[in-house]
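Problem 12. The chain below contains 164 residues. Write out its predicted structure in token notation.
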Amino acid sequence: MDGVLADVYSQFRKYEKADLGIVQEAAAVVGKTEREAFRNVRTYVNTPGFFLEAPVMPGSVEVMAHLNRQYEVYIVSSAMEFPLSLYEKYRWLQQHFPFLSWEQLVLCGSKKVVHGDIMLDDHFKNLDHFGGRTLLYSQPHNQMKDPGKHVRVASWQEVAGVLL
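Solution.
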């Protein structure tokens, strides 16, 4: 969800500007983990409203609606590391993706327990163990790495081109 449906990098930049007065250009964080790129990232993700107010990734709602009609779609998001995120992610999904039922939402700890046909994620740690087809959603933290066996997609239009 984070970095694929929800634009958490915009949130990090917004919080960092408000917190430290720093405005980082997108290129400045390429190749860095979120923790390396944003000094107070742990504080931000534990702040009420961080996940609830995250912008939606452009094109994600429309493409997800199409995917939901064509596939058996589940949203799987790690939510246990940051306890406030559990409820906020659920509310965020209800608000922005109302066509998904509560039964399609899996808020969990580790994604290693997830099995299926296709996984779209922005972290190698979630894709590398997955037994099905994998799509790597480009984000600054993964842009400098070879996608390997994963198909790299840089936008929701590219996701649609691969899956629809």
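Discussion. The first strand starts at residue 75 and ends at 78. Students who got a different answer should revisit the alignment rule from Section 12.3.
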